[in-house]
From TrEMBL:
<dbReference type="InterPro" id="IPR051017">
    <property type="entry name" value="Aldolase-II_Adducin_sf"/>
</dbReference>
<feature type="region of interest" description="Disordered">
    <location>
        <begin position="23"/>
        <end position="49"/>
    </location>
</feature>
<dbReference type="InterPro" id="IPR001303">
    <property type="entry name" value="Aldolase_II/adducin_N"/>
</dbReference>
<dbReference type="InterPro" id="IPR036409">
    <property type="entry name" value="Aldolase_II/adducin_N_sf"/>
</dbReference>
<protein>
    <recommendedName>
        <fullName>Class II aldolase/adducin N-terminal domain-containing protein</fullName>
    </recommendedName>
</protein>
<feature type="compositionally biased region" description="Low complexity">
    <location>
        <begin position="24"/>
        <end position="40"/>
    </location>
</feature>
<dbReference type="Pfam" id="PF00596">
    <property type="entry name" value="Aldolase_II"/>
</dbReference>
<feature type="domain" description="Class II aldolase/adducin N-terminal">
    <location>
        <begin position="86"/>
        <end position="257"/>
    </location>
</feature>
Length: 320
């Protein structure tokens, strides 16, 4: 544990505030606080399986069954691919509606293909997020080649460099969302992010392969990373979850900037959430929970599409 004692494990907690679980060194860790991470020289690989939420039935054994929203199962990998592409396009539209398509060709969302698992889908370079359709998405190989089967359209080279490194470093991750937001730029520029997963080595637009590797290293085992003076990036096992985390993180950053500014003006300080509560909340936001949190936004996108987008794809099987 001696070398491990210098290793800092960083966790990101994006709700209900950006209060970050503190970096944990082996000397300060208690057994109760080690949940998903065991302190070793090398962090364990993230779990491949989804962690589904446990629904607590209320009303006793005689209560009638109620409809629940859960990550579905699929009749085939083709159905799962169609599902991922529909939700990918919907997540991009939602990001566009919320002003994240605000720097021209900047911003990219990638989703791993369920059949060609070393390939990913990405938004076409320079196209509006708000009008994205599943058939607009581009299929890209591990080496960055645009492949037939998807839209034969160019992609953002920086998008490939960042996202391919993240997908390679995190086999558990299905989707990654990265856009530029004014609050995250402002927050990260303040340089007090010792408790957060943050990438400080912004080397201009990410055209060098090692930039992507460094960002993936900074992300580590967490749900999100702040790219200093740049923006932020979130990952999840669904594109819905990654989009939810992206928006949640941005709102937390905005809230904290406002609270910190107000406190500075009044000479007071913000009230911090205790480590235990932050850790409990972080663990509550499992893979299924972050998926569920996005489904009202998905419904908004589907309804706004006036019949262009379905709520479900063929071969989607609801989970009980
Ligand atoms: Zn960027």
């Amino acid at each position: 544990m001696s070398r491990a004692s210098t290793r800092l494990l960083r966790h990101i907690n994006v709700t209900p505030s950006l209060r970050q679980v503190r970096p944990i060194s082996s000397s300060s860790v208690t057994s109760a606080s080690i949940t998903s991470n065991t302190i070793t020289d090398k962090p364990p690989p993230p779990p491949q399986e989804f962690t589904y939420g446990a629904y607590q039935k209320v009303g006793g054994p005689s209560a009638k069954p109620v409809h629940t929203i859960r990550i579905p199962k699929f009749e085939s990998l083709e159905a799962e691919r169609a599902f991922r592409k529909l939700h990918h396009a919907a997540a991009l539209r939602w990001l566009g509606y919320n002003g994240y398509n605000n720097e021209g060709a900047g911003g990219h969302v990638t989703v791993r293909d369920p059949i060609l698992t070393d390939h990913y889908w990405i938004n076409p370079h320079g196209k509006s997020f708000s009008h994205m359709r599943p058939e607009d998405l581009v299929l890209v190989s591990k080496g960055g080649e645009v492949k037939e089967g998807g839209n034969m359209h160019s992609i953002n080279p920086a998008g490939h460099i960042i996202h391919s490194a993240v997908h390679e470093a995190r086999p558990d991750v299905v989707a990654a969302v990265h856009c530029h937001s004014v609050p995250s730029k402002a927050f990260s520029a303040m340089g007090f992010y010792n408790d957060h997963s943050i990438y400080e080595g912004f080397g201009g637009i990410a055209f060098k392969a090692d930039e992507g590797v460094h960002i993936a290293q900074a992300l580590g085992n967490t749900k999100g990373v702040i790219l200093q003076n740049h923006g932020h990036l979130t990952v999840a096992k669904t594109v819905d979850g990654a989009a939810f985390l992206f928006g949640a993180m941005d709102r937390c950053i905005q809230a904290q900037l406002l609270a910190d500014a107000a406190c500075a003006g009044r000479g007071t300080s913000t009230i911090k959430i205790a480590h235990e509560e932050a850790e409990y909340t972080r663990n509550t936001y499992n893979d299924e929970m972050v998926y569920i949190m996005f489904q009202s936004a998905f419904e908004d996108v589907v309804r706004a599409s006036n019949g262009e987008f379905p709520m479900h794809v063929q071969g989607e099987i609801p989970r009980e």
